[in-house]
Structures
1.
Amino acid sequence: IPAPCVAAISDKLISKGMSAVSSLCVCVSLQMYGRYTQDLGVYAKEEAARLREGSQRRSVSERSRTLDLLEYDKGRCAKCRTQKWMYGGLDSNVFLQYLAWVTYPVVLITFSAGFTQILAPQAVGSGIPEMKTILRGVVLKEYLTFKTFVAKVIGLTCALGSGMPLGKEGPFVHIASLCAALLSKFMSLFGGIYENESRNIEMLAAACAVGVGCCFAAPIGGVLFSIEVTSTFFAVRNYWRGFFAATFSAFIFRVLAVWNRDEETITALFKTRFRLDFPFDLQELPAFAVIGIASGFGGALFVYLNRLIVQFIRKQKAINKFLMKKRLLYPALVTLLVSTLTFPPGFGQFMAGRLTQKESLVTLLDNRTWAKQGIAEEFDYISHSQAWKHPQVNVFVTLVLFIVMKFWMSALATTIPVPCGAFMPVFVIGAAFGRLVGESMAAWFPDGIHTDGTIYPIVPGGYAVVGAAALSGAVTHTVSTAVIVFELTGQISHILPVMIAVILANAVAQSLQPSLYDSIIRIKKLPYLPELGWGHHEYYNIRVEDIMVRDVRYITLNCCYRDLHDVLLTGHLKTLALVESAESMILLGSIERAQLQSLLSQQLGRPRRLEYIRERAAAEKKRLSVVSNPGSEDGSQRANHEVRFQVREATARGAHISRARFSWFFFCWQFFCSVICPLQSSPSSSLLLFYFLQIAEWEEQQLDEQVNFNNCKIDPAPFQLVERTSLHKTHTIFSLLGLDHAYVTSIGRLIGVVSLKELRKAIEGSVTVKGVKVRPPLASFRDSGTSSSENEATELHKLWDRHKSMSLPREHVPSDSDEKSQ
Amino acid sequence: IPAPCVAAISDKLISKGMSAVSSLCVCVSLQMYGRYTQDLGVYAKEEAARLREGSQRRSVSERSRTLDLLEYDKGRCAKCRTQKWMYGGLDSNVFLQYLAWVTYPVVLITFSAGFTQILAPQAVGSGIPEMKTILRGVVLKEYLTFKTFVAKVIGLTCALGSGMPLGKEGPFVHIASLCAALLSKFMSLFGGIYENESRNIEMLAAACAVGVGCCFAAPIGGVLFSIEVTSTFFAVRNYWRGFFAATFSAFIFRVLAVWNRDEETITALFKTRFRLDFPFDLQELPAFAVIGIASGFGGALFVYLNRLIVQFIRKQKAINKFLMKKRLLYPALVTLLVSTLTFPPGFGQFMAGRLTQKESLVTLLDNRTWAKQGIAEEFDYISHSQAWKHPQVNVFVTLVLFIVMKFWMSALATTIPVPCGAFMPVFVIGAAFGRLVGESMAAWFPDGIHTDGTIYPIVPGGYAVVGAAALSGAVTHTVSTAVIVFELTGQISHILPVMIAVILANAVAQSLQPSLYDSIIRIKKLPYLPELGWGHHEYYNIRVEDIMVRDVRYITLNCCYRDLHDVLLTGHLKTLALVESAESMILLGSIERAQLQSLLSQQLGRPRRLEYIRERAAAEKKRLSVVSNPGSEDGSQRANHEVRFQVREATARGAHISRARFSWFFFCWQFFCSVICPLQSSPSSSLLLFYFLQIAEWEEQQLDEQVNFNNCKIDPAPFQLVERTSLHKTHTIFSLLGLDHAYVTSIGRLIGVVSLKELRKAIEGSVTVKGVKVRPPLASFRDSGTSSSENEATELHKLWDRHKSMSLPREHVPSDSDEKSQ
């Protein structure tokens, strides 16, 4: 096929590719949630019929509502049913009930952890931190393999099925990215555009949007969330692609529900039915603001708690040793603890333990008031809501217990090494907190706050929506959770309360803790650049010269291999600077370490050595035969004498042979002993030593040769910064271009280097590394406007003086004109 | 005040500043729409009471609805009332009615155009194109002045009041940015952080979000729209700021409505009441897709039409001359034409001419079906809807006429030189088109499409929402119009149809025409980089070496002033490259043209010339007095002879004196004639000529001196590209960093330069500029992987050879080791 044709076809395919990714994701999602739809269909119909019999009045709207609920029932795939069946069938014996309740999650989580561990340990956790790192330009190839894909999908399915407080948003983002990466790899077989690196990054950015989009059937919120969570700078031209992919994923996700006859038409996933004409009173806004601020603290606490648990387990060496030995013990223990506490006849009865995550969310977003049951509402009670009402215990106590218990359980559960996210658990906790505040408000103002005649009772469900958005926003440091809740509930009437709460929650959480994903990045020590916090003015006052490493490893254009060798032994950076000469320090480019290593090994490598040895051996043999011919005793004596002299000389010369080449010496020794010596009749040890020293001398000669860079790939335009660039701008440039390091130059002269490490340290404020110093706080007093040109002028002056002093033959001789003018 | 205190205070103020900007915007918005609220309040109450009497049943919901509608009535500030009053009071005479209908808009638009023209012509138009350019990093200072602010606010108020099909979104973005810029300027008086350039850009980005946010009370859509419209790469850390600002602006905008007792609580601006349980059928999706595709074509046509009108008026020299003479004639004529055609008793009766833009939108988003009036709906007819129902003409004809007429009217009206946008008119046309499709669908399927027993009639209002989002999205090339309509209507139930339609509309429109704002940028010839279209693979295959200008103007480190002078005469770029020497071409940095000009003027400037002349004059006087003393005749003869000889010599030497300095010669001549000659007793013309030639010689000497760059501000790290960078990557880097030009280097050697102009030409495909050639389409066949290193190696080889041939005294002499090894 001619190349243009392929290009044209692949152009068509890029759009199809996106929707393929989306549908693949949807398939994954359906695989998990719709797997048992078929056999559940019968049950669903029966249940619907039963409910319809019970009340004739609520025909149309109620039916769709029931179907909604049934879908949620079905949503919790096999486990819930099996677990409930086991639990329900064992009515008589509490112990057997407990066993049934506990065994299922433990087995599933253990299997998931084991499977993931064996197949691809990269699949553990959310995947969003890794995607963030990859989209920044850092290559983490093992995170985008087919193995990881399989491990993630199967591991996630099992983990979600266990009923533990785990989410699926992060893993979905990772799965979608895996699809995109595999698709890109597949497409690149056809060549053309798909081989392009930046194209793949664009694909990945769109895939992230798909992941969240098909989780919630939230095309807009999904795109925004994935942007906020994975990008620092977002290309607006990718925006359109993200929306395209996410819309198709959401569309297919919901259309399949219609085709399965679960729904009559496309609707929201967690549809709410709050009243439209008066959604909330203006005077309720302070309560919403309180939810926002409290969620901010709660979100920061959650991130802190999560990190604390991970660090605690890591630090406790005894525990760690034990857990490391039996890798599956930790997941099993955690699952056992959590499922024991939620056991419905036990402690679970006080915290609605028998509800799954989705059921909890549905009941929490309910538009009725729980605390004050006297008011007649148009909708009847849903059976699940009963779980919140304990005969002895107040609903407020149930809610508080639910929030507190779920809070630490979620923080603990997300540390289990299975593919899992934390978004959904946090979302549910937020909804419960919002519901708590809402119920309190409803109890406080039974007739609503509005004073203008008509009674508008307070809607606690609206508070739940606000709380869910605020807490999940605080944990992830995103604002787009607001959009997600609108798309999830299908109602946008609470837009202002939600926005205010989310913004306040973000303000509080961002000033206290990093986001959950950044926290995981730090725990996992991924090469990522932290965000600049807001309100830190010092970033504008710290200059790059304050944080740069001045002791740059460089090679000169006319350096010899010895310099190369020394530089390679000491430095650590992946690339080395190439300068014109050590005096001028004019930066010409950068060379990768691997290139230099191959240069060096070409010069001193085994083939050339062997060649040299053979040459020498042949020459020596010839000489010896010539020498030994005239007179064997005398000749050998003379040769011996000669050798001794040469040895003394060579030893003096080769005294500083580096240790690194000693192994090579021994190899040569053995080579001589085995190959050359048997050929010769009289092998003397001094002669052998002579050979070795000759080889050492040859090596020294080779090292003294000038490096030939001709076959070396040089990056002629590495990124350069000026020494007075502010930390803020440096951060911007590093994140914009996904840089790993940048050279600091002054009028073409290399004066330092800044890498991600220095930048990270400078931003995090813990600047303890050698050679790095941070400006004192008083640096803000410094007048930045005037001094910079002076500094530059001085640097230039030096360069200029050097040029003058070198007095090269130039096209123009200044002294001539000087003479003329006199 | 100590600086840290100021910094701390200003930290507080930055957040306040944002809300100040927002509230200022809100104030502006209220100034326009709420100015006549107070006196209208009474009328509103009466109207509400009257309506309530009319029907007892619809108590709660209807009341808020009525109030909603009244607010829209009030929304059209004084003009509407006055115009309608005039129009209503003159019932008897159609001609007087016509006069009243026409005079008002003409006067207002003429005033607006005149006022803007006189005070600040920069205030004309939308302002979004200018903001896009400014946010890209190009400084357009005159667009952010206080004068522009005043002109924009007053001009916009009048333009909107005229009732012409003009929008306010673009101007609001500009006004908000003006507020932010003025605020920044004010804050920078306190020093500290506010002096920072990038900080101001961040402020502007947030201000753009405020502008749209307070227009529609749409915090989320506003932020997204402003991002899409103004940015190429968006910093996610500004996202949060935008949401913060936009939420406050929307909040204050809507809260003031509550405080004015126009509304009971915070609600959406154009609240819709579509049914929730079954918003649309799955089988209606093709119709929505058709709306999307048609809107895409419509949007492209609108942009094309708008550009065509502008270009037609510019090209027609006769018209142009006439209009230029009388600048206010064009606005007046256009207004006259438009208002004549909408005159209600005339042609306006067939296109709902008596409705204002807001009234049209409210009626179009109505949830009843117009075509089929038999079905009983729960809501009664609103009076405005009657405007669509002509006794003789079908509602379809009215809608078609409305769409067609408003289409060209809007395209024409937005070319009037007043502050105005095009978003709202397009939005209304889109809504009308959607309504048309919806009504057709409703007429086609009177009982709805759903076949499962229950009748769900089609909701044409939902189609109107989809159409509005799709057409406005197509014209502006944005997806976020989808979010805006959700926030505007307060209902999110149509999310999938809206998303699908918007995406399809974007796909069609983007492939046909640039966005309206990009079109205006091209018309106004603002320095902006066009977007890369999608599906153009050639961008990956064109290299920067294909488009760069190879003939770079540079100066060398040891150049003389003559080189400087020559370079300054020929080049055009704002900055010049500084290289080490003409042979090595190693790039050391770049210098601004202004800096070089000041260097040159320092060297050859008036002070130094005058000083030299005075010195010479003094020396000559002394010499002459010495010469004339011994013998006057002989001495004068000898002096004359000497002069003649010197003149000949000097003439030979100074033959190539550039024309540019002739004026200076004449100045010197006059100076001599007037100042020096009267002092001397015997002024001879040959002596004078001698002086001039001596000055010329001095000049030549001065020009031959080596340039001292010590006091010159040099940018030591100008942006460098490699010659094999793809056009795609170059575009990305230019847009990311807001570059104006970049040098192309190869191993430190300057080989070319790429400026915005070359890049723009290369992207737009019209590569005709000298020295620029574009790869043939077959370039995609080229193997890009292997050849690059060869190329680099060759370049390096040259450099290396040069170094060897120069044989400078280095620390290492290669020949030594060569000798040793032999």
2.
Amino acid sequence: MGFNSSKGPSFFDLLTSQADQLVIGVDLLRTLFSAPEDERKALRKRLHEIENTGDELNHQLINKLNQSFITPFDREDLSDLASALDDCMDLFDEAGDLLVLYQVDNIPEPVDGLLSRQIDVLTKCAKLTAENMPKLKRPQDLRDYWVEINRLENDGDKAYRKTLKHLFDTGLDPVTIIKLKDIVEVLEKCTDAFEDLANTVESIAVKES
Amino acid sequence: MGFNSSKGPSFFDLLTSQADQLVIGVDLLRTLFSAPEDERKALRKRLHEIENTGDELNHQLINKLNQSFITPFDREDLSDLASALDDCMDLFDEAGDLLVLYQVDNIPEPVDGLLSRQIDVLTKCAKLTAENMPKLKRPQDLRDYWVEINRLENDGDKAYRKTLKHLFDTGLDPVTIIKLKDIVEVLEKCTDAFEDLANTVESIAVKES
Amino acid sequence: MGFNSSKGPSFFDLLTSQADQLVIGVDLLRTLFSAPEDERKALRKRLHEIENTGDELNHQLINKLNQSFITPFDREDLSDLASALDDCMDLFDEAGDLLVLYQVDNIPEPVDGLLSRQIDVLTKCAKLTAENMPKLKRPQDLRDYWVEINRLENDGDKAYRKTLKHLFDTGLDPVTIIKLKDIVEVLEKCTDAFEDLANTVESIAVKES
């Protein structure tokens, strides 16, 4: 046993697969965002399926932890990474749910454009994460990854605040503003979740160094 | 000294007592939810008292940690469990405060029924937690507990989103919608707190396995 | 090397400097809160600068961790402290941004007075934190600090709920209520962040005891 076990995927394989699901997830989220209303439920269903796949990978990792005598990092660190990846996916899923639930259409500019800028940031975060998870074996080498994610989170933050400001200036009815504000905020939480993941990687690097 | 110490309650006794307070707390929350306005302040006062009892148990556990040479789990894990239990109670208390503070009455259906469905989920979470804390000695055996709490959290999530959707369809004035949305959201946070607690137990099981 | 290293500030020096920035930050926040609109952007710029200084101190500490063979506490604990201090500053910064972004003026009493009471609590939290960080070498001696921060957080909580209640009674338009509610809530999150920091100190004391 242990992490060299030939049986099944390694811890790094499982974390990488979770990250790959995030790339698929954010792509579905973007499609959902601009999809006509009658297609949204089907897209949300697919997003739920991706989220379930992520959950299963998370639990596979926990089970592997239970069966392994030797682990590449501390057990808690591996489960922290898996649950940080899971948090990102849960928030994509929540964003997708709100888009279907609130049925907000013809979002006026610049709000619509700013929302998709938030999704752009999330797409970059997901891709960067998927590129770097396979290199986790040497967390100290991932410095560029966590620095870039922190930079992206700052961009996301700016987009978020700009969106809020313009949202209040739209003169839309208060209830629509409340709904759009929820969507803006869940997208912001997604970026924060990617930052939390990057910070987890950074703190593992600190420990392992 | 150590966890076999005959002086006073064991760590498991203290965590179990905290969980028992949660069962009393959620019960008060339900009563408060459906109580006539003139009875609410008295009920909130009792909820505050329960919350204080929970705090005291939390601090007793921390003090016991300070006095114990041997602990059944890592010190941090025991304090994490105590504060996770405390978080659940703080959110019950917050929910109770909002119910009194916002004085929202005659909540229209289906919102009223959906809110009490959220409280049903919380009641199940609290009872399940209280049943399982005494078995903490062997966290690996609590798999059914954390799986069920995660399932309940998903139910709570569905109830939460359904409530939001219907809330926006009520045609209530925006300010009432904002208030009710706060209440729906704090109840959702309570379910999340029970999930966090269950995840803490799961990660201890992983470590101890 | 190690924490007796004569090269550069010690871990405790760095954490203390981060705390000192919080005192400057909360002071700017108060000035910003009562400043005429045309001065706010300049004040926010200064608040951003303070936030950047905090970030740099945070990263200095992480780098020092990477270079130190011996650390006064576990590596994770030191990085947890640094990031808890950073969270407080990020929330000050966010509060400042909202004050500029939302351009809410002539806030009616008692809301205006209650908002500055929330800032009073934050000022006390920041000062108390800055006074106590230099004593971190013996975390067990900081009991009064974390007890007092928890007490202040309870005061903040009361102020927060009272503010919400009165906010809804102002009869302001819903959009202004949403904006002010955001500001009230970010100030409440700041107090929570100071409590999280104090709890981190407490849990280190528990471990080190």
